[in-house]
């Protein structure tokens, strides 16, 4: 098929989760389909060049931030989600006649915030990839974020829920995890599952000589669920661990570190803020354990997939483990409160053979269920379903 693949941000190999997912799907499916990428954010020449080999064309249409801010302010008193209002007029910026002249057979749109674009391409088959249930994400954030953003999240959650329901009623939609599908709807119009993946060649199984006194947290360090998780862990879990293991260090690895994490690392010498790195593999490989103590957020976490693929033992909150289909005591250790998480990590530190056994089974799970090739096959089946309607 000839596919128009529309995203907010340019698909990119090492960036935010939605960009990684889009890049991996385009790369895999370009072997059997002719794909044009269209995104609405600015992008450099290097980013375009990395995507170009997999596309017939790469179209980038940067949008006015001032106009977007005006639309968001106007939407505060209405019922439209602010994130949808941000892109409500994106379709009017497209040269629809030129795009229709390219002979596209299917339009794929990523994220609920771009849902208004779908209407511009009738009667073509259309698929919307929610990635995850943003309404669930916002509801969880509202529970833990005490700042103005928490108030906005509480405002957004029911509005996004209404949009997700309406879009899934009209179009074929996808999400990455069963919990997100259930959060949107559970009937015949429920989103199809297209799971996240990991590049198994880039994350080969490696259990060398790990540092017994080091644990690592990897992720976008400017994303609220990650900031919340790291701060909670530092305040509630790390002091318990250090009573038993005084030399233990926590390393925070990832892009866009929030000021809260900068302050945390500056105040506590046993916390190292590594920040953005070209490759996370060395930091995962040398750690005794990787943690994913998320309380907010939604979807499937790349931090879990990458650690499990590489062979680093994982201690995770229940919601993150369940999204992966990972079983406590088989693929990782699950803990939700400070005492349980501290106990789980101390077990791994004291019993390296336990960590090795978990790591082997976790790698097997990722190989069987979470390659990007398998994820692309799941999306391709959805495209075929939409095209057949």
Automatic annotation (TrEMBL):
PANTHER family: GLYCOSYL TRANSFERASE GROUP 1 (PTHR12526:SF600), GLYCOSYLTRANSFERASE (PTHR12526). Keywords: Glycosyltransferase, Transferase. It is an enzyme of class 2 (transferase). Its EC number is 2.4.-.-. This is Glycosyltransferase. It holds the Pfam family Glyco_trans_1_4. GO terms for molecular function: glycosyltransferase activity. It comes from the Bacteria. The keyword Hydrolase does not apply. Gene3D superfamilies: Glycogen Phosphorylase B (3.40.50.2000). It comes from Tahibacter harae. The lineage of its organism: Bacteria, Pseudomonadati, Pseudomonadota, Gammaproteobacteria, Lysobacterales. The keyword Iron does not apply.
